[in-house]
Amino acid sequence: MQGPRNRNQRSISDLVDVSVRHYELGEPIEELAADRGVDQSTIRRWLSRARSEGIIRTLVVPPLSDDDSTALRHEMRYRFELEDVVIVPGRADVLDTTEETATKEALVLAIAQAAAWYLEDHLTNRDILLMPWGRMANYITRQIKAPHPLPDLTVVPMEGVMGVEHDPFEANILASSIASKFGGRSLLLPAPAVVDSRISETIEALPLVQRVTEQYQRATMAIVPLASPDPENSTVVRTNLMSVEAVKDLVTRGAVGEIASHWWFDRAGGVVEQSDVHAIGLGLDGLYRMVERRAKTIAVVGASRERILPLKVALSSGLVNVLITDHITAELLLSEE
Length: 337
What we know:
Largest sheet: 7 strands, parallel
CATH topology of the largest domain: Rossmann fold
Low-confidence stretches: 1-10
CATH architecture of the largest domain: 3-Layer(aba) Sandwich
Order of helices and strands: HHHHEHHEHEHEEHHEEHHEEEEHEHEH
Strand content: 5-15%
Number of helices: 15
Shape: globular
Distance between the termini: 57 Å
Number of strands: 13
C-alpha cells in the first residue's frame, strides 16, 4: 500500500511541476521532456491529466477594451487619489459566487499575475518590500519570474509566524522565496503572529525582532491583502489564533475589514484593537506612515463582493495607495451603492 501512494504523490508533483514550468514559465514541451528523461507525448499526457484534475484552469472573460480600461484606471486614481491602478478583466458572476469554484480561482490567479508583473516592473535595487502571509501573497510569489537580478533588494515579512510547521503561505517563507528569485536578501521575523497583550512589549523589544521591525520605517513597498471580518471562517479562527467570540466582539465594536488576518479597522479606517491579544508586525499605523511618505502600499483584491466594503474603506481612508483588481470590482467601488 505504501508504494502506490508514494508513486501517486510523485505523479501529482510531476503534474504540478510541468504545468508551472510550461504555462507559467514558458518552457517548451521538448525541453521539459529532455529534462525529465521522457518523450514529448508523456509531457503532453501529464498536461492533459493536470487539466482534467483541475491543476490547470482556464478563465474566459469578456474583452475589456484599452479605452475602457484606461478610463476606469483614471477615474479610480482621481476618485481615491491613488498612485497607480492596475485593472484586469473580471466577471460579475464570479464576484457573486461565494464558493471557491475553478472559475473564481482562475480570476484570483489572474489578479495575482498582474501583481507579480507589477512587482517585476517596479522593484529596484533600493527597495525594501514587505510581504504578508496568505493565499494571494503565495500566488503572487509563485508567479514572479524575476527577469533581472536585484542583489540589493530586501524582502521582509510584515507579520510574525502563524504556526510551527512549514506552511507555504507564511510571510517569512514568501519573503525568502521572492528574495531568492531576485538574488536579493530576506529577513526572518522570529515571533508569533499573535501574542498575549501582556507580553507584547517584551516580544517587540527583543533585538532579533527589532532588527526586522526597524525595516518597516524604511520600507518602500508592501503587498496588502484585505478581507471582511468573518467570525466563522476567518483564518485566525481556523488556525486557533483567535476564537469565534473574539472576532464577533471586533465586529460588534465596528470592525468592517481586516488586513493580513491581524489588523482590524472600522468604517473610518480607524484601528479596532483586539481585546486580549496583540499582532506582531507592521500594523495599520505602519501602513498609514508608509502612505504618508509616499511608499507604495499595494492592495491586491478582487473577485469577491464581500471584500468591496473593506476595500473601499481602505482606499478612502488612505491605508493603501495602489490598487490591483478586476474591472467589475473597480466599477462597484466607483458606484454610490
